[in-house]
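step 3/5: co-fold with adenosine-5'-diphosphate
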Amino acid sequence: MSFADVRDDGAGGLALEARRVEKAFGEKRVLRGFDLSVAPGEFVSIVGRSGCGKSTFLRLLTELDVPTAGRILLGPDGSATAASVVRMMYQEPRLLPWASVLDNVLIGLGDGGRSAGRLASARSALAAVGLADREREWPAVLSGGQRQRVALARALVSNPGILALDEPLGALDALTRIEMQSLLESVWQSKRFTALMVTHDVPEAIALGDRVVLIEDGSVTLDIAVDLPRPRQRGSQAFGSLEARLLDQLMRRADSPAGVV
Amino acid sequence: MTTSSAAIDLRRPEVSAGSRSHTKRVAVPSLAAVVPWLIPVSLICIWQAGSSLGFVSTQFLPSPTDVIAAAYALTMTGELPTHIAVSFQRAASGFLLGGSLAFVFGLLNGLSRTSELLTDTTFQMIRNVPNLALIPLVILWFGVDEGAKLFLTSIGVFFPIYINTFHGVRTVDAQLIEMARSYGIGRLNLFLKVILPGALPSIFVGVRFALGIMWLTLIVAETIAAKSGIGYMAMNAREFMLIDVVVLSIVVYALFGKLADVTARALERRTLSWHPSYQKV
Ligand SMILES: Nc1ncnc2c1ncn2[C@@H]1O[C@H](COP(=O)(O)OP(=O)(O)O)[C@@H](O)[C@H]1O
Ligand SMILES: [Mg+2]
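step 4/5: write C-alpha cells
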C-alpha cells in the first residue's frame, strides 16, 4: 500500500487525463462531458461557482466515488490507481485529535508500525512544512494554519504523484492564508508533484496555478495559462488583468438569470 | 545532531516545570484542593458539636466520634474489613462482567448494522425494566447466593456502558473515517486508531454512570438478600439497634463511591490527555 517505498523522494508528478467524464446524482447531472488534461508536475487551479461540481470532480479523481461515464487516467500509461498515487487535502485538516502530530503524519503512510524508516519519512515531511519541533504536540494546541500544515505533511509524506486540494486554505484568516500559499508553492516547487487545487479565491488561483480552469455547468469553460514569473506579484498589471478577466467570466454567470444549471 | 539537542532542550523545561509545581502542591495545598472539603468538614464539626452539646440525641444520630469508635471496634474484630472486602469483590465482579459484556455489545452494535438489528431492540426492552424490580425473581432463582448480587449489579452496570459505547462508536467523526480510508488504513487500524479513541470520551461517561448504579444496586441487594457485606452489616445492626454501625455503613458506602469516581476520573485524565478539556495550560 505504502508507495513511499516504491517512489523515491522528488520522483515528481504524474499526468492526469479526464475524458468525457459524466457524473449524475439521480436526475441531477453534475459533470457533463468533462475533459481536462494535466501535465506531470503542473499546478492547476480550479475555480467555479459553488455547486458547479468541483468537489465532485476531486472525489472522482481520488476514487472516493465513481463516474457515471467516462474515465480518469492517471500516470504515463493511464494505469495508476488513485489509492496509490493521489492524495487529498480538505478545507478541514481532519487530524486525529488523540494522535500526536507525528502519529498524524504517519497515517499518511498507511498501515504499518513506527519503523525507523517510516519515522524518518514523517519527520522530514514535518520539517518540510516547518513543524519539525512540534512532533509530540496534540493537534488541539496548534493554530489553524499549523494544523493545515500537518495535514499537508500527511498528504505529502508518501510522495504522491498527484495532490488534490479542495479549498485547502478556505478556513484560514487572510494573513495565514498568504503564508500558506507561499509554503504550498515552495513545497510544490521542491517536490514537483502534480497539483489540482480548488479555490474560490481568484487571486489565489492565479498566484499558484500554472493554469486556471473555470468549471461551469459541469464542464470546463475556460482554461487560461498563467504566464507570470514566480513568486507572483499580486499588484502587477498582468496579474490584475488576468484577475479581471476571470472575475468577469464568473460574474457574467452570476448576473444571468437562474436556470443556467 | 541539531535535532537531538533541540529535542532535549524542549524536554527540559517541561520536566522542571512539572516538578516545581509538584513540590509546590505538596508544601502548600492549593485553594482548589481545600475548597471542596470545606462543606463536608464543617458539617462534621457541626454534627459533632450538636451531639456533644446534647442538641442531637445519640439514639437518633450517633456523634462522629461514636462512628469512629464503632469503626475501630469492628476493625479490631475483623468484621469491618471482611464485609468491606466482600462488598468490594461483589462490586468489582459485577462491574467487570456487566461492563465487559456491555463494551463488547456496544462495539459490535456500533460497528455492525446486522448486529444492531439483531440485539438492540431486545436490550432496549430490558433496559426499561428497573433492575431492582427483578429482586424478587432473582431471590427465587439464586436465593441469597453470590449469583443474585452478581446478576443484579451486572445488569445495572450493563446499560449505561452499552448505550454510551454504542453512541460513542456511532458518533465518531465520519470525515476522520473517510480520511483514514483514503490513506489506505485497514479495518483493524481503523478501529484501533480512529473508532475506539473517538468513542472513548463517551465510554467514560457510561463508566461513571455505571459506577453509581453499581453501588446503588449492591446496597439494595445486600440489605435485602445477603449474609455478608456492608449492606448486610447495616441491616444486621438495625435489628440490634446499633445506630453507630448503621451510620458507619453509610459512610463506608460514601467513601467507596468517592473512591470509584476518583479512580474513573484519573483513568479518564490519563487516556483523554489529548482532549482540550484535559490539557494543562
Ligand atoms: N452524494 C451526492 N448526492 C447528491 N447530490 C450531490 C452529491 N454530492 C454532490 N451533489 C450535488 O452535486 C453538485 C455539485 O457539488 P460539489 O461538487 O460539491 O460542488 P462544488 O463545486 O461547490 O464543490 C451540488 O449541487 C451538490 O448538491
Ligand atoms: Mg466543494
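step 5/5: annotate
Residues 1-10 of chain A have pLDDT under 50 and may be disordered.
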